[in-house]
């Protein structure tokens, strides 16, 4: 689950991580009130930031023609005008696609003078099965670009989950960024808080880009998380009621929301061949082989290892809600899964939905004989695949013929 920037900063602040002062608002009048409060506190400039689940907001364009979803305001009136131009409008960035996202919330925050930008993130290193903290002096740009062109500028520190991040590791990272004097202590405190946020919130990633040395209104240097992004492990959300309440359904695809109600792992794609598969690895392989034979997958859909008849039926309805779907490939390898349960669900779903699209089914594994018998005796018009490649060839041919 992803959360907004202002929510990420709220979580970070709870663990002692320094973030700019500010508040989230939903109306232009609220934006004006927050701006008045921040300027009265001595701020010389504010930033007005659109809150959507997408990057590239600053370089985005609203469908109204207004340029930029992140603006610097030098006065209350300017902040008020920016808020009126952004709220309720659709912002298009390189990550939203042409449809864009409606901006319903803004973050009004202090914008101190920035002296230096860094990058910092905490995530899981799957090679070591341990968390890593990584920092770079190249902040404010895509970390993928840094990794490709100058990988030596990324410093990584592996953390033992049994003991957590140690103070010496935090100081080592602060030193790697070239911090001096009191900034080393600020950096160490920030990194320890950032790791604690990652660990105790069951995050999959905490990313700060940029992490900045700023000049405060008092003229002092401070290390502050100017932007923040947190991704959370869906499987652990039951432990965090406060984080569950941060979920913004308006930022999620309607079909993905519907799938989550049935504990289905569904991601909509742009192709025309829908996939219904059990197991994430097999689902990825199924999408690859469809692409290999000239087709284009319409979705990732993993029904899990022990799907019920009701889940299979729900999966079909979700698939058919996508108008781009021209054919369906069901690829099931029964381990825990009972192939006959899948077959029964397929029959029920096809009859209930009145499916007219080409349907290719490949079943193997646990109770496959009973599953194939259920399909054969159903009276349905469907195509069977003897192997994964055979099924993929047949569904691609059926869609393109």
Q: What fraction strand?
A: 25-35%
Helix fraction bin: 25-40%
Task: Output the CATH homologous superfamily of the largest domain.
Answer: Succinyl-CoA synthetase domains
Q: What summary fits the major beta sheet? A: 6 strands, antiparallel
- Whole-number total of structural domains: 3
- CATH topology of the largest domain, what is it called? Rossmann fold
Which structural class should the secondary elements be placed in?
A: alpha+beta
| Mean residue pLDDT | 91
Low-confidence regions: none
Number of strands: 19
User: Counting H and I runs of at least 4 residues, what is the number of helices?
Assistant: 13
Gyration radius, to the nearest Å?
A: 25 Å
Name of the CATH architecture of the largest domain: 3-Layer(aba) Sandwich
CATH class of the largest domain: Alpha Beta
Name the overall outline. elongated
Report the end-to-end length measured between terminal Cα atoms: 39 Å
Output the keywords:
401 residues; alpha+beta; Dna Ligase, domain 1; D-amino Acid Aminotransferase, Chain A, domain 1; Rossmann fold; 3 domains; six-stranded antiparallel beta sheet; four-stranded antiparallel beta sheet
Describe the structure.
- With 401 residues, the protein is α+β, with helices and mostly antiparallel strands.
- The chain folds into three domains: 21-111, Dna Ligase, domain 1 (2-Layer Sandwich); 113-243, ATP-grasp fold, B domain (D-amino Acid Aminotransferase, Chain A, domain 1), CATH 3.30.470; 254-400, Rossmann fold.
- Helix content is 36%, strand content 25%.
- It has 13 helices and 19 strands.
- The chain has helices at residues 5-14, 28-40, 76-86, 143-149, 167-176, 182-200, 241-244, 254-261, 280-292, 309-320, 339-353, 368-376, 388-400; strands spanning 22-25, 46-50, 61-62, 70-73, 90-92, 101-102, 106-110, 113-125, 130-136, 154-158, 203-215, 221-225, 229-232, 265-268, 273-277, 299-302, 327-334, 359-365, 383-384.
- The strands form five sheets. Strands 8, 9, 10, 11, 12 and 13 form a six-stranded antiparallel sheet that branches.
- A hairpin with an 8-residue loop joins strand 5 and strand 6.
- The mean pLDDT is 91.
């Amino acid at each position: 689950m992803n959360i907004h920037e202002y929510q990420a900063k709220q979580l970070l602040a709870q663990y002692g991580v320094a973030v700019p002062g500010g508040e989230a608002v939903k109306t232009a009048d609220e934006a004006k009130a927050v701006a008045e409060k921040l300027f009265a506190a001595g701020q010389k400039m504010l930033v007005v930031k659109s809150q959507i689940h997408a990057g590239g907001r600053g370089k985005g364009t609203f469908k109204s023609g207004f340029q930029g979803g992140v603006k610097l305001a030098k006065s209350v009136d300017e902040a008020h005008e920016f808020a009126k131009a952004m709220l309720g409008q659709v912002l298009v960035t390189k990550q939203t696609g042409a449809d864009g996202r409606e901006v319903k919330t803004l973050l009004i925050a202090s914008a101190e003078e920035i002296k230096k930008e860094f990058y910092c993130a905490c995530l899981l290193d799957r090679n070591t099965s341990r968390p890593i903290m990584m920092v770079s002096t190249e902040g404010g740009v895509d970390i993928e670009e840094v990794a490709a062109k100058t990988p030596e500028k990324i410093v990584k520190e592996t953390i033992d989950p049994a003991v957590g991040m140690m103070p010496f590791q935090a100081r080592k990272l602060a030193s790697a960024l070239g911090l001096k004097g009191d900034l080393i202590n600020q950096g160490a405190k920030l990194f320890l808080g950032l790791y604690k946020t990652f660990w105790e919130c069951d995050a999959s990633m905490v990313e700060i880009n940029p992490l900045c040395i700023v000049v405060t209104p008092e003229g002092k240097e401070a290390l502050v998380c100017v932007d923040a992004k947190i991704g959370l492990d869906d499987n652990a959300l039951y432990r965090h009621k406060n984080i569950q309440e941060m979920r913004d359904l308006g930022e999620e695809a309607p079909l993905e929301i519907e799938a989550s109600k049935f504990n289905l792992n569904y991601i909509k794609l742009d192709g025309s061949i829908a996939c219904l598969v059990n197991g994430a690895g097999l689902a990825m392989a199924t999408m690859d082989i469809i692409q290999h034979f000239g087709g284009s997958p319409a979705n990732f859909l993993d029904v899990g290892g022990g799907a019920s008849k009701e889940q299979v039926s729900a999966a079909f309805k979700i698939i058919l809600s996508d108008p781009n779907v021209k054919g369906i490939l069901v690829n099931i390898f029964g381990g825990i899964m009972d192939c006959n349960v899948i077959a029964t669900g397929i029959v029920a779903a096809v009859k209930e939905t009145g499916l007219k699209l080409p349907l290719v089914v490949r079943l193997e594994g646990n109770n496959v004989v009973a599953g194939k018998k259920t399909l054969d005796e159903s009276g349905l018009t469907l195509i069977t695949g003897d192997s994964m490649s055979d099924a993929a060839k047949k569904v691609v041919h059926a869609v393109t013929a």
